[in-house]
Design a protein that fits this description.
With 443 residues, the chain is an alpha/beta fold. It is built from 17 helices and twelve strands.
Amino acid sequence: MVDDPTMIGIDEIGLGEQAFQRLGLTEGTEVEIAQARPPASLEFVRRKIDGEALGDGEIAAIIRDVASHRYSHMEIAAWLVACAGFMTTQETFALTRAMVDVGNRLHWQSPLVVDKHCIGGIPGNRTSMIVVPIVAAHGLVCPKTSSRAITSPSGTADTMEVLANVDLPEERLTAIVAEHNAVLAWGGRIGLSPADDVLIAVERPLRLDTMEQMVASIISKKVAAGSTHLVLDIPVGPTAKVRSQSDAVRLRKLFEYVSRHMGLTVKVVFTDGAQPVGRGVGPVMEARDVMAVLRNEPDAPEDLRDHAVMLAGHVLDFDPAIEGGKGYARALELLASGAALAAMERIIAAQGACEQQLVPGPLWYEVKAARAGRTTAIDCERIARVARQAGAPMDKAAGIDLLVKVGGIVRAGDVLYRIHASSQTGLDFARDLASEDPGYAIA
């Protein structure tokens, strides 16, 4: 209903772009409108709110309705919060299977289809964009499909979008994998676990990312993408998503249980999550670091390179042709020789290289040390929040350049990091948050 007759006329309905695309109808199509009935599965959500454990069929009904857009965001939020309060291992498995069942599934000719995934929470940890070209250069099939960022300043899809098109239709994606062994694409375009994309849209503003939802999200996407073997990176640190060894072990066991029942071989690797990885936080800065590593530039961030090569070695160890424990040496060889860079350049060209070269946002603010001393800790969560306040990942050019890492010695007034933004509002929000607490401990 509008008060401007020039917008729509009598007996006409104007739709937002999202609704227009969802219906898939051309402009001028005659439609019939009826009041939507509340989905019957909402009764199961109410039972979950009351603390009950749901059966496989009840969870499947909820996910079918979520994927069909029968739930409002408020109802989805109620489901997510209820699950965050209490969810059994069996419910997590049922959720994962239901999310796979309502979406598309990819099938590959190769009996060995590998992937690598990180649960996130560590700014700048963009290892997948180095691991995938290393694995592709070796000759393994690695169809890497990723979600966009949920609680971080950038996801793999957000960062790769700085370099190439990630919104690929299924036929194009499969053709690229057939020719180049790998792809780095956004999974939402091809309908892999579509319910997860609906849930993520609500999780993002709530900054909600529970272990159970995380496991269901990741494993459903990998199974739907046709992966048979997965290396899973779980960073552990005082400000990471997983903050204790006991929580890490619990999460590993949950991943292993669900993966085993879904027919996916998973190798879980615990890594150091004590500080951000690399020097850049945000799509443009992270893409810069990735390419510096692939180009073997002398000043490329060593921690990002070492972390990526280690994980790539674990993925290559899945290859029966590689002798036990030789995957790391092979990964190092492929990176040093330039074979990984060449593979990445082929993938970028095949997906469609970005014509416009993006650079860090033109507006910047320097966060300086209040005292002299040695940097003893960096708060990953705080750094991520500052980068998001600056506009990342929606604003690809927004983010942070880290100039000091843990162990660095500073004088009072030295610059710890530089915030970049494209808007004054974003810069002001990020500056105010950093002024409250820069996220650095100096002793």
